[in-house]
Design a protein that fits this description.
The complex is a heterodimer of chains A (137) and B (275). Chain A has helices at residues 33-40, 48-51, 65-78, and strands spanning 4-5, 9-14, 17-22, 27-31, 82-83, 108-113. Chain A has 137 residues and is α+β, with helices and mostly antiparallel strands. Chain A has one domain (4-123). In chain A, strand 2 and strand 3 (17-22) form a beta hairpin. The N and C termini of chain A lie far apart (64 Å). The relative contact order of chain A is 0.23. Chain B is of the alpha+beta class. The radius of gyration of chain B is 19 Å and the shape is globular. In chain B, strand 2 (20-26), helix 1 and strand 3 (51-57) form a beta-alpha-beta unit. Classes of the chains: A alpha+beta (137), B alpha+beta (275). The interface between A and B is large, with 39 and 52 residues.
């Protein structure tokens, strides 16, 4: 059985990247275009072998492609973004065309833990000096 | 269930936080006067549908390094789900938020910082049509506006001051996503005045020796914006909704990195570059 996208994860394509939010630990992740392709295909059925025929593999390091895909899927598992249990999706998604002319390793390219108060001086949690933004009225 | 320690003569004041109206009630008229000093420009008539925040002062002294009762004061904030809402607590204050009855009961020193802690949790929960963003909001002569975002020290207040009368807010703005674009509404804070306008750009601020601007790709814009949103982190459904709004904002509103020198010509530069 392949991996499937976690039910606790919301995701959107933004430009050519795919952005995920883990709704429980409040972390946000960005996948490169290649990563977005694999994320899209994680329906609980597909594994690395099922992805390979859909990839434009033309470079000399092709033998490392399965290894790079496995590493990416491992990263998703470690970040608790995918699940291995439960049934596959009832209607497996159809894979889109691979978004790049040749294979590029899929990667999590950015992540950040979200805070409810952003980074404003007036809203940073924790003890510390008073904010320098004192109202003038 | 919120319980009041005593029922004494209660005064009230109502203010608009975007399209959310909050009615503040307290027996402490001095505290209400503090509210009026900060939020006066956003004063509105009481409405039945307003969310009510009842404040009861405790006898605890004000923190010794609190400059004025209206100033910000940093405390560790703990928030936990409670029946029908949330409990927000700090070392010096405690608030029960009841989303079902649309009431909150706040106890703390007679200053505004306990309320600031509550509002940062409450506003994102009450505003379900968009995002609450740490950002200055500056209107243009063409009826549009720009968000000027960044962490503390990035220049929100400076760039708002340089905009003069065009500045609507120097700290917080609500953003509503609609019809392939976005509208932003000034929220009351240090120096704000009521106003809203369709967004033509989001600027991500930094200081520099000269004015320099660079267009961001949507995914870059999302990364910048993500840390400037007040996230409703205690509500998964609201988090998912805010995330969708964030993605749409990043895709529909042009975003730029702006480093600027704090000089009077910065808005001429911005208006020329971001049309």
């Amino acid at each position: 059985m392949g991996l499937r996208r976690g039910a606790h994860v919301a995701w959107r394509r933004v430009g050519d990247e795919t952005v995920l939010i883990h709704l429980r630990n409040k972390k946000i992740y960005v996948l490169n275009p290649s990563g977005g392709f694999f994320w899209h295909g994680l329906d609980g059925e597909r594994g690395t072998a099922q992805f390979l025929p859909n990839l434009p593999i033309a470079d000399p390091s092709a033998e490392r492609v399965p290894e790079r895909i496995e590493a990416f899927l491992r990263d998703l598992q470690e970040a608790d973004l995918v699940a291995t249990d439960g049934a596959p999706e009832e209607r497996p998604v159809s894979l889109p065309d691979y978004p790049l002319p040749t294979f590029v390793p899929p990667e999590l390219v950015w992540q950040q833990e979200l805070r409810n108060f952003g980074q404003s001086c007036a809203f940073i949690s924790g003890s510390g000096p008073t904010c320098d933004a004192i109202p003038t009225t | 269930m919120l319980e009041l320690a005593e029922e004494k003569e209660i005064s009230q004041a109502s203010f608009a936080f975007g399209e959310t109206h909050l009615r503040f009630e307290s027996g402490d008229r001095t505290w209400l006067a503090y509210l009026d000093r900060r939020y006066r420009r956003f004063s509105v008539s009481p409405r039945a549908e307003s969310f009510v925040v009842r404040f009861e002062p405790t006898s605890a002294p004000l923190p010794p390094d609190l400059v004025t009762p209206l100033a910000a004061y940093l405390e560790a904030v703990h928030c936990a789900p409670a029946a029908d809402g949330y409990r927000v607590s700090t070392e010096t204050s405690e608030c029960e938020i009841d989303m079902r009855s649309r009431r909150a009961f706040l106890r703390g020193p007679a200053a505004l910082y306990p309320l600031d802690n509550v509002l940062r949790h409450l506003l994102p929960l009450l505003w379900d049509e968009g995002l609450i963003v740490h950002s200055a909001l500056v209107a243009g002569e063409d009826g549009t506006a720009v968000l000027a975002c960044g962490p503390s020290g990035a220049g929100k207040s400076t760039i708002a001051r340089l905009a003069g009368e065009r500045a609507l807010s120097d700290e917080l703005a609500a953003v509503r996503i609609e019809g392939g674009g976005a509208t932003s509404i000034a929220l009351p804070f240090w120096e704000s005045r009521p106003g809203s306008a369709r967004l033509r750009a989001a600027l991500h601020l930094g200081h520099g020796p000269r004015n320099r601007i660079e267009r961001l790709r949507p995914a870059q814009a999302l990364r910048r914006l993500a840390s400037q949103v007040l996230w409703p982190v205690w509500d998964e459904e609201a988090m998912a909704r805010s995330f969708a709004y964030l993605a749409e904002l990043a895709e529909t509103v042009p975003a730029f990195d702006l480093s600027f020198a704090p000089r009077g010509d910065v808005w001429d530069f911005i208006d020329k570059e971001v049309s």
